[in-house]
Structures are given as structure tokens and as C-alpha cells.
Write a structure and sequence with these properties.
139 residues, alpha+beta, FAS1 domain, four-stranded mixed sheet, four-stranded antiparallel sheet, 25% helix, globular
Length: 139
Amino acid sequence: MAQTILDIAGLDRFLTNVTKGLKATTLGDTLNERGPFTLFAPVNLAFESIGKDSYDSLLKPGNARKLLDILSFHILESKKLLKDFRNGEKLRTINGKTLTVAIKDGQVFINGSKVLSRDRQASNGVIHSLNSVNLPEGE
């Protein structure tokens, strides 16, 4: 059976925090669906910028809505490979909010977060890892 985005993220030791968060929300189920999706997955170290205690508290059931809002701000309902991104491009996330692409010196940034590993193909889309967590406005 082909691996979904959630399967691949779950096997990556650098993406355990985002995988835990996805599984704690309905997004885990979403990323096992047909897709296509693009997941901008913050690496584990990226969550330190919002504070380990803060992220751990987001994983608690009472904070599911806020966690869902943050993580859905990292998912597109389309498959976008690195070569598809254009400087200044606006990307609509599954929560209806917009991310902005910037390309500087050959590096791609999504809302200021640098794309690290890229184009990790899954049966239902693609994963790009990020060096920081993008927080929706007001978070």
C-alpha cells in the first residue's frame, strides 16, 4: 500500500511534534485521505520557538481548536512541488488563510519560514519541512 503524507511524516524523527499534533486533530484523518495535499511540516526544533510548554498545552483536548487552526495553516488542498513556487505567490491553506512565498538566493520561504527538506512524495501529495512554525494572524 502506498504511503500517505501522515505515514511519511510519522516515520521522520524530525517531524514527531507535527505528527503528534496532526493525530490529535481531525487533520490526521484528512492527511490519510486521497488528496492531493501539500504539508508544510515544521521540524521539531521549530516548535521550540513557540515554547515547548505552549506546544504541549496545545496537544491537550481543550485546545484542539487552536491546534487545528495553527496546523491547518500549514496545509494546501493541492500538490505543490518546490519548482512550482513563484516569488510573491499567495497560497490558500485549508483553513482559508493565505501564505506568501518568497524566493531569495535560491531558497524558498513560506511566510518567512525556510523550506528545508522538499518534495517528499506521498500517495496523496507532498511534504516540505520548515524551520519555523507559521502562526495564523491573531495567534
